Automatic annotation (TrEMBL):
It comes from the Bacteria. Residues 25-260 form the Orn/DAP/Arg decarboxylase 2 N-terminal domain. It comes from Pseudothermotoga thermarum DSM 5069. PROSITE patterns: ODR_DC_2_1 (PS00878), ODR_DC_2_2 (PS00879). This is ornithine decarboxylase. GO terms for molecular function: ornithine decarboxylase activity.
């Protein structure tokens, strides 16, 4: 998202910090993915940004939704999204939430271990199961495989076990890691996952019909990124090459960051500049606990200081407003040498995982959300 005159006016009008979003960019991102992988069922990952206006826009476009909790499910129900448009994709669910989702009418669940299958069989009998597989994440900024997913041989056994539990094994999912820069990551994953389709049919007579390619499509920050079209072409080529004989195959995708990341800018303001030893520090009214939790893992946003875009830059320690030492954004932020009190600092393409992580720590409220569509 670009810093338009409307955004600059909002930055000088509204109290910071706040997130400003453009719903039209969200729609463009949805349509781009839809066109890049024709026939793909898109399940927007609600956790990326669950603002009602965003969910409503995607609902109206026909999107499905990747949900991680009963709270997200109920929020969608209140917006008129039916359970058949949801996948309960969190591989670690409370039994009471599984039962409640089932009661509501949700029938599509993800699992990656025997106990999760047993919980689903007990609380959501006869439901459809997608088994999540761990794949290589080395080309991503945020690898996920240590926490989620099983190995391929175990995945085969899990699909067979799901059938034994009288569940309906229907597919396999994977995630190449958040902010993945190499389209081949998807083709490599599909090449491996294709073997599971073959093995479960041979060993258990199970014909899988869903290939869930997860998320991972990158948003532009500081590194060059492949286009959605390039990733889509790679996925389609891999499917044609490695899964040519699968009947009625449906591709699922679970985009989160790529749907909303570049549709937002986080706007903050300098509340202090000082020197500590040999280091220059700048403190903002946004920080790790108030919109920028991902920077703990050194997630790098493009930073722009209002009116000082052409000034010479130097390194600063950039920190948030709370009294916790964890609230440090970057050790080496390159900012204008003359940055000072009340300067406006923009975090570009920050529409994902900012307001969702917000807290009221130290009694400081989370950033508010505004929309370009409401600005005059």
């Amino acid at each position: 998202m670009e810093i338009t005159d409307a955004v600059r006016k909002a930055a000088k009008t509204f109290e910071t910090p706040f997130l400003i979003m453009d719903l039209d960019i969200v729609e463009q991102n949805y349509r781009k993915l839809q066109n890049a992988i024709p026939g793909c069922k898109i399940f927007y990952a609600v956790k990326a940004n669950s603002h009602v206006r965003i969910l409503e826009r995607l609902r109206n476009l026909g999107s499905n939704f990747d949900v991680a909790s009963i709270g997200e499910i109920k929020k969608l129900l209140e917006l008129g999204v039916t359970p058949d448009r949801m996948i309960f994709a969190n591989p670690m669910k409370r039994e009471k939430d599984i039962a409640e989702a089932y009661r509501i009418g949700l029938r599509l669940f993800v699992a990656d271990c025997p106990m999760e299958l047993e919980k689903i069989a007990e609380n959501a009998p006869g439901s459809q199961i997608v088994v999540r597989v761990a794949v290589e994440n080395k080309h991503s900024d945020w690898p996920l495989s240590r926490k989620f997913g099983t190995d391929m041989l175990t995945a085969v056994d899990l699909l067979g076990y799901a059938q034994k539990l009288r569940l309906k094994p229907v597919g396999v999912s994977f995630h190449v890691g958040s902010q993945n820069y190499n389209p081949k990551s998807w083709s490599n994953a599909i090449e491996n996952v294709a073997k599971i389709f073959y093995w479960v049919e041979r060993n258990f007579g199970i014909e899988l019909s869903i290939l869930d390619i997860g998320g991972g499509i990158p948003v532009k920050h500081l590194k060059p990124i492949p286009t959605v079209e390039e990733i889509g072409q790679t996925v389609l080529q891999a499917v044609n090459e490695y899964l040519p004989n699968v009947r009625n195959l449906t591709i699922f995708a679970e985009p989160g960051r790529s749907m909303v990341g570049d549709a937002g800018i986080l706007v903050s303001r300098v509340i202090l500049r000082c020197q500590r030893g040999s280091e220059e520090w700048v403190y903002l009214d946004a920080g790790v606990f108030h919109g920028l939790m991902e920077t703990i893992e050194n997630f790098r946003y493009e930073l722009v200081v209002e009116g000082k875009e052409e000034e010479k830059k130097m390194p600063f320690v950039l920190a948030g407003p709370t009294c916790d030492s964890v609230d440090k954004i970057y050790d080496d932020a390159m900012l204008p040498y003359n940055i000072t009190l009340d300067d406006i600092v923009y975090f570009i393409n920050a529409g994902a995982y900012t307001v969702e992580y917000g807290t009221n720590f130290n009694g400081i409220p989370s950033p508010k959300v505004y929309f370009v569509q409401d600005l005059t």
